[in-house]
UniProtKB/TrEMBL annotation:
Gene3D superfamilies: 3.40.50.360. Its EC number is 1.-.-.-, 1.6.99.-. This is NAD(P)H-dependent oxidoreductase. Residues 1-215 form the Flavodoxin-like fold domain. Belongs to the NAD(P)H dehydrogenase (quinone) family. Pfam families: Flavodoxin_2. The keyword Ribosomal protein does not apply. GO terms for molecular function: oxidoreductase activity. It comes from Rhodopseudomonas telluris. InterPro entries: Flavodoxin_fold, Flavoprotein-like_sf, NAD(P)H_dehydrogenase_qn. Keywords: Oxidoreductase.
Amino acid sequence: MKVLLVFAHPEPRSLNGALRDVAVAELQRQGHEVKVSDLYAQGWKSAVDRADFPGLAPDEQLVTAAASKAAFEAGQLTQDVSDEIDKLRWADVLILQFPLWWFTMPAILKGWVDRVYACGFAYGVGEHSDKRWGDRYGEGNMAGKRAMLIVTTGGWEQHYGARGVNGPINDLLFPIHHGILFYPGFDVLPPFVVHQAGHLDEARFEATAERLRERMRTLATTAPMPYRRQNGGDYLIPSMELRPGLGAPGRTGFALHVREEDSASPR
Ligand code: FAD
């Protein structure tokens, strides 16, 4: 398989840097082709602004989605963005790796998503009718590809447990899993999470590295998280609400969007 790992940590000698090297080495040992987008090393520009749309006339109002669509269709995206789009098209698997910063991804990685997910490529695709509401949530240009997160947290596993004060880790990651990865069509694998990452002795590092190698060996066979497909009949169109009768009684929030026959699986 072809694997794109997007790495968002400012320090190559960090724990994240060491785990990235472990993942890449294991993937290559398995015969996979690997490309790494090291965002800090690349000097990735995070903010979307007028400079992203060289075709926009100086006096024209910037309407971001429209400008993105026009630039994507005309082949006028900036070189850094179109290089990343080429890598995404090339990849069978996308891995996003980052330390959890303020309960989500670092700004540089969010900026990669904001800029690389062009309109007409990652969103704004497909027809809208009484049967379909665009190609999204399980359909879209990333359909057939797999994706997963490698995440480190300072907090303990219990802090991110079902009753933990930080909120369940799979709830915190839901906007990335469901909103950023499932939305344009990826099959989303359960995340690889390292808790209490501020304190790792050599033994725990080695155990963590081995757990990560195992995840890299099973990249092609791990079952994706069972999100409901938007156009699969579970949602009313155009309200996009889950049909009455679906979802276990009393269930609310993110958990509704996981097929209940598989609800024991993580969100
Ligand atoms: P590093 O600091 O590089 O290393 C951590 C430990 O791993 C050290 O003990 C180090 O000795 C060991 N280590 C590193 N490399 C190796 C190696 N090769 N072999 C053996 N041991 C090694 N945490 C939360 O839980 N929630 C948050 O919302 C949150 N927000 C944050 C916001 C900011 C701005 C920052 C800076 C931190 C935040 N944190 C938060 C903590 C953050 O998630 C952790 O600091 C981070 O995940 C640790 O990963 P790292 O790669 O930076 O680790």
